[in-house]
Amino acid sequence: MKKIGIDARLYYQTGVGTYLQNLLFYLDKNKFKNEVYYIYLRKQDAKKIRFKSKYIIKRIADQKWHSFSEQIGFLTLLLKDNLDLMHFTYFSYPIFYWRKFMVTIHDTTPLLFKTGKASTKNPFIYQIKHFLFKVVLRLQVNRAVEIITPTNTVKNELIKIYGSRISKKIHPIYEGVSYKLFQSKENNNLGNKFRNFFIYVGNFYPHKNVENLLKAFSKLKTKSSLILIGPDDYFSRKIKLNKKILLFKNPPLSNLIFFYKNAKAIIHPSLSEGFGLPLIEAASFGTPIIASNIEVFKELWDGQYLSFNPNDVNDIVKKISIFIEKKTKFSYESILKKFSFEKMTSSTLKIYHKVTQNS
């Protein structure tokens, strides 16, 4: 029996968590013959997660990412389990792990922008941490036997940074709409309270460029409101709200579905993305997309969205105004066929099998 490990310590985190939840959900639907899967989870997460397959085994890895214990404790656990292949699903990993591994690199944003808590740190501390991050990522890219990216754009960015020699081991695999969204129902009661609105869905890190969206919306001549939907954190608390700008923190999926289905459009002003899950989710409900003219969105949406220059507030105003005036519509039916977490899992399994057959 081949032993394959999957790092799922970020199972309940935003972004990577959605990727993990769907990868493991569809993995659990497969029939296994010659392999067993070790799923590495934080202790508090493992209690909430159940797998039907006897070939999927939960392993407690209570060492947090970006920590010293990850480098020692998690490394020791992995070596003890003697895996044929380990799948690291995030750039933080035990750098002295010498056995065969593959990695999912979701984006190159941390190389280009201050993200998350990094942007709140002392500049000197940030520089040190950013240097260490670059070292860890370079080691991971060089040592991984295979690399998964969510788009061709991320693949091309990695090749540009690390060279063409890594090209053959990079596999762009599109993601999709979370199974949890399919299983949830819309909260229709919100219809009595909210009408005539645009939405932004995501976190509020600096590279998300929400500040320019707020500047644009303050200049916009419209009776519509803008509803910001995201986490309750340091960044969301800094947002200045008014009658036109509303903030919903951590809404349940039933509320999120209402906002997707009833919004005039979703607006996404990001400066950098690896994929952009909220846009896929919105499009699945037929919600029009107004978003940055960055390469990844051009790749995914093939012109079926209204684009703007994210660095130009006046252009954001102009494009939203055009949308309101012309009532622009897009057809997403054919595009959405290429986005699927189930297909993503199937493609990932093929890589697992290819690597382990050669071991």
UniProtKB/TrEMBL annotation:
GO molecular function (one): glycosyltransferase activity
GO biological process terms on file: lipopolysaccharide biosynthetic process
Domain Glycosyl transferase family: 192-327
UniProt xrefs under InterPro entries: Glyco_trans_1, Glyco_trans_4-like_N
Residue ranges annotated for the Glycosyltransferase subfamily 4-like N-terminal domain, each copy included: 15-177
Keywords: Glycosyltransferase, Transferase
Name of the protein in question: Mannosyltransferase B
Taxonomic lineage from the root: Bacteria, Candidatus Roizmaniibacteriota
